[in-house]
Amino acid sequence: MIRQKLEMADKASTQNVLHVKPDSIEQLKDVLEKAQQGNRIAIPTEGSAEDAWAHRISPEEKITIVDISFLKKDDIKWIIHRFKKSIENNPPVWIETFRNWGQTQTIPVIASVPTTLEELKRLLKVASEEKLRVRCAGSGHSWSPIFSDRNNLLIYMENIKSDYEDGSRIRISPGTVNHVDIMTGVTTRQFKDFQLEKKLNIPANVILEVVQMISVVATGCHGVGYDVKAPSDYVVKMRIMNAKGNLKTFQREDNKMFKAIQANFGCFGVIYDMTIELKQQDIVKVENQYQN
């Protein structure tokens, strides 16, 4: 008789347990709302736990066991859901698989292309709150794993507007004749065309014309010429936005600190622009002489 009563109690308890396994944030919201409407206790678990809970409740209790394994499996989707909500999707963010030019790096990332300083500031603030690492990418020509970490934030800076008075992205620095301000996103080809137009010259640069000039500097590319310095050595000023959204200015007069800034690999924040010291263009005459 006692055994029969226990079996009936176990059966009633089992009937009061509802096990659900949502596959998305939207389904999870729907499950929780229905549990609340039905006066059910929602218990989140990873994997099935129905049998374990069935023997720990009274016949009067109604429980919904919610398997939230998908949150762990699709962690990046959960992160971007919160991210979009925090920044109101301005600027837009999305999930993509980043691949570098050489196809040696394949990384799932949260990506964004800010167009203003305010949008950049908003991205960095939310990334800091979410404890995400932030990296920027240009044309992706590096072979090394210097891009975003898996499931973290990757920012493309080619479309960000400058704060220069004339709205340009590259200019002669005010009050100078051979210092050039270069916005992030400016390519080496655009920089080369500017040098030809202004009759200025950087002693060493890379051969590629599709990479971004700030990326060349930030990664310490050596350029060409055995008797000249690297492009980063000619940088005299750099503006960088840190994780708090503050735009900091670093100059050559900062001595030892600036040595680290010149080729910083993004470790100090997101580079907004830089100033490079150039020299006047050399005009070279070439004559070919042939002996009889």
From TrEMBL:
PANTHER family: D-ARABINONO-1,4-LACTONE OXIDASE, L-GULONOLACTONE OXIDASE. This is FAD-binding PCMH-type domain-containing protein. It comes from Mytilus coruscus (Sea mussel). One of its GO terms (cellular component) is mitochondrion. PROSITE patterns: FAD_PCMH, OX2_COVAL_FAD. Residues 103-281 form the FAD-binding PCMH-type domain. Signal peptide: none annotated. Belongs to the oxygen-dependent FAD-linked oxidoreductase family. GO terms for molecular function: D-arabinono-1,4-lactone oxidase activity; FAD binding. The lineage of its organism: Eukaryota, Metazoa, Spiralia, Lophotrochozoa, Mollusca. Keywords: Oxidoreductase.
